[in-house]
Amino acid sequence: MQTMVDVALSGMTRAEAVGQHVRRVIAERDLRPGALIGTKTNIRESVGVAKATMNEAVRLLESQGVVVARPGPGGGLFVAQHDPVVKLGQSLLTVGGAPVSVADAVVVRELLEPRIIVDAAKHRTQDDIAVITTQSAALTDVVDDPNAFVHAVWELHRTFARISPNRILRETYLSMLRFIDAETVRISSVEEEAGHRRYKQGRLRLHQDIAEAVVAGDLSGAADLAREHSLTEE
């Protein structure tokens, strides 16, 4: 991997340099689609970057269709499958050759989200339950950090999406979320007023309630909460 001096001279960010390193590993090891590249922890330690930098690198690589990140036991970074369904989701990010706006992607994501959440409640496994429970509890720890909270919420939604057996639904939704994530450079912090604190706590409770409904396999409750989620901003 390039040194940080090389990175500075090349104009790349550290996350972009990590992404370049991962691409090089894939090429040098001749890894095929679906092959394990390594865990995020192992890769991060091998290149010596912070967790936040590694997470940003993963988001960039996922948005570019290079890797797929899978949480939980047996998880890690895997070479993305370049099959027609994945390409369909990625191709929806351009219409007639024109790029789709973040606002367009948000609308599509919100339309798909209720079905994603209900599918997660219907098809979750014991391994999924363990991951969702951990991610839901972790939201409390980052609720006061706007950037960390939003990205943690998106990671929870990615977990829901990966459970869905409907591949077209799953890949289209994940493509929209990857695009939104990649295009969102930073979430601006809002002054800590009483109203804002109530808003954050409300979003925290809503997402933890959704996670609880999915874990319990409560299809009706999951559907109701998904509709509530679609009526409020992220």
In short:
With 234 residues, the protein is mainly α.
Description:
- The chain is mostly helical.
- The chain has two domains: 4-79, Winged helix-like DNA-binding domain superfamily/Winged helix DNA-binding domain (Arc Repressor Mutant, subunit A, Orthogonal Bundle); 84-230, Four Helix Bundle (Hemerythrin (Met), subunit A).
- It is 68% helix and 6% strand.
- The protein contains eleven helices and five strands.
- The chain has helices at 4-10, 14-28, 40-47, 51-63, 84-91, 102-123, 126-142, 146-163, 167-183, 194-216, 219-230, and strands at residues 36-38, 67-70, 76-79, 94-95, 98-99.
- The strands form two sheets. A three-stranded antiparallel β-sheet has the order 1-3-2. Strands 4-5 form a two-stranded antiparallel ribbon.
- Helix 6 (102-123) packs antiparallel against helix 11 (219-230).
- It is globular and about 50 Å long.
- The two termini are 36 Å apart.
List the helices and strands and how they pair.
Elements: H1 4-10, H2 14-28, E1 36-38, H3 40-47, H4 51-63, E2 67-70, E3 76-79, H5 84-91, E4 94-95, E5 98-99, H6 102-123, H7 126-142, H8 146-163, H9 167-183, H10 194-216, H11 219-230
